[in-house]
Amino acid sequence: MTATQTPDHSSALDPDAAAPAGTQTLMRGLAVMQAVSDGARDLKEICARIGVARSTTHRLASCLVQERYLRSLPGVGYVLGPKLIELGFQAREAFPMATLARPYLDGLAELTGDTIHLAVRDNDEVLYLEKIPGKKGLEMRSRVGHRMPLAATGVGKALLLDAEEPQWKALHRIGAPVSSRAPGGRQTWEAFRDRMREYAAKGYAFDLEDNEPSIRCVAAPVRDASSGIVAAISVSSTVPYMSLERMREMVAVVQGAAAGISAELGWKVERA
Predict the structure, then answer these.
(1) Mean pLDDT of the chain
(2) Dihedral (Cα; 104, 107, 108, 114), 10-degree rounding
(3) Is the pLDDT reported for residue 65 higher than 60?
(4) CB 27 within 8 A of CB 15
(5) Is the Metal-binding keyword given for this protein (predicted)?
(6) For 176-209, what is each residue's pLDDT tens digit?
(7) Rg, C-alpha atoms of the chain
(8) How far apart are CA 171 and CA 125, in angstroms?
């Protein structure tokens, strides 16, 4: 996928897409689950979304309920089932990034008292793998499994530090910083580019109320043995707790934790 393309989630689960014999039922079952995930609650709505006959959809849904991938709740309809919750936790635990990073995230949380995030890039979006809520009674809309535009978040900018400017521009166009309190208001491409140039040169990124009013964060990239950026971490809080002076002081702390996680992944600091 190029930087100017947006991810096409619908085609990935097209139940009638060309596929080897024997896989169509699987693809249709996945399409049913995706439809329910997207809000379809009855057979009529699921059929409309996936383009499969009602009788076939009913058989698929019944099988998925029997195997606990879906639930059928009175007065509600179909919802995702407990089997998917179990698999989700298993996948999360099996993903070494979160496991390796956790001690460093816990250390940041204990040191700062702020909200801590670990995220990776998923096409044109940030995918949050871990969130440790802060101790200051603050709540942010981010959550594990949530996605946000790369250009609008601190961790997203940190994930883009090695990218070329044309990719920055494309991602800025897809999901520019949206808060009117961001530097320059709803940021122009030129303002965003200048910030990214500075962040890339210094190895960190700031969220200056770009994504949510009153929320600021300091983020740094995580690298693997190839020196490529594979994740990012951040420390986030509200403006009263995250002055620009404190943000500058936090850069070395966040970079240090990111370097620790990177070392766990085989990254070696390049020395002059």
Answers:
(1) 85
(2) 130
(3) yes
(4) yes
(5) no
(6) 665 555 654 567 888 889 999 999 999 999 999 8
(7) 21
(8) 9
Cβ atoms < 10 Å from Cβ of 66: 10
* 3-state DSSP percent of the chain in helix, strand and coil, to 5: 45, 20, 35
- How far lies 250's CA from each of 8, 59, 200, 216, in Å? 37, 55, 17, 12
- Nearest Cα residue to 70 out of 96, 101, 37, 25: 37
Please indicate whether residue 172 or residue 268 has the higher confidence score (pLDDT): 172
Cβ burial of 183 (10 Å; 0-12, 13-18, 19+) is middle
Q: Name the token pair of 29.
A: 């079952």
**CA 91-94-96 angle, 5° bins:** 125
Q: Which residue, chain included where needed, has tokens 């490529």?
A: 228
pTM score of the predicted model: 0.67
Q: Coil, strand, or helix at residue 19?
A: coil
Q: pLDDT at position 45, please? A: 94
Q: Which residues pair with 33 in a beta bridge?
A: none
For residues 233 and 204, give the distance between their C-alpha atoms in angstroms, rounded to a whole number. Answer: 10
What φ, ψ does residue 106 adopt, rounded to 5°? -60, -40
